[in-house]
């Protein structure tokens, strides 16, 4: 049906870059509701879905419900909130229908949105985006100046989940459109003798981009996608090369 990201692999990948546990208390509150859709990478199908937060404790553990309205299913979810990231799994059927259990999720809080990826191990995977409905503005919705600026440089390592190999990389932000958050820059791969152009978007402390063109063609591939979060001087998050590989990124501002 829907859903996919290898559970231990995907969840542990995102846990690497989570903010300190407990930071999300103001953003993830009992009684909070989110509504949106999940999309399958494999089939392109879309399912409307609602998320309700039932309980959150001081450790960051939370319990909630996912309501798959078009599939006639209501599932209990359990997971962890840490900083601006949520990871959880569908663990039990409150109301059985056409939706599957054991699907896993890794989401980033972006102001009033929850967005990220899901996986049904061995079956399907895709994206999910949910918007807060009827809630007071979360802490991350308070207007703040962007955390990124033109000329910033980050360097560190990019690790492959599939092979375990680590590659040194440097990311430079060349230009940002302040009205839209759209930016251009470059990623340099010293060990692969490659420099690729990157294009993407910045939203407060979150930066997402894709390698789009060769500046210096070497051993690095194009079309790899990144979704990273800035915490102080650290830039961390997941990357993936669709249909080929995925892993983690850990960079530090120079």
How would you explain this protein's 3D organization?
The protein is mainly beta. It has 2 domains: 7-136, Quinohemoprotein amine dehydrogenase alpha subunit, domain 2 (Lipocalin, Beta Barrel); 153-253, Lipocalin (Beta Barrel), CATH 2.40.128.30. It has 1 helix and 16 strands. The chain has one helix at 7-15, and strands at residues 33-40, 46-56, 61-68, 73-82, 85-95, 104-110, 113-120, 124-132, 153-160, 166-176, 182-189, 194-203, 206-216, 225-231, 234-241, 245-253. The protein has an 8-stranded antiparallel barrel. Strands 9-10-11-12-13-14-15-16 form an 8-stranded antiparallel β-barrel. Strand 6 and strand 7 (113-120) form a beta hairpin. It is globular and about 55 Å long.
What is the topological layout?
Layout: H1 7-15, E1 33-40, E2 46-56, E3 61-68, E4 73-82, E5 85-95, E6 104-110, E7 113-120, E8 124-132, E9 153-160, E10 166-176, E11 182-189, E12 194-203, E13 206-216, E14 225-231, E15 234-241, E16 245-253
Antiparallel strand pairs: 1-2, 1-8, 2-3, 3-4, 4-5, 5-6, 6-7, 7-8, 9-10, 9-16, 10-11, 11-12, 12-13, 13-14, 14-15, 15-16
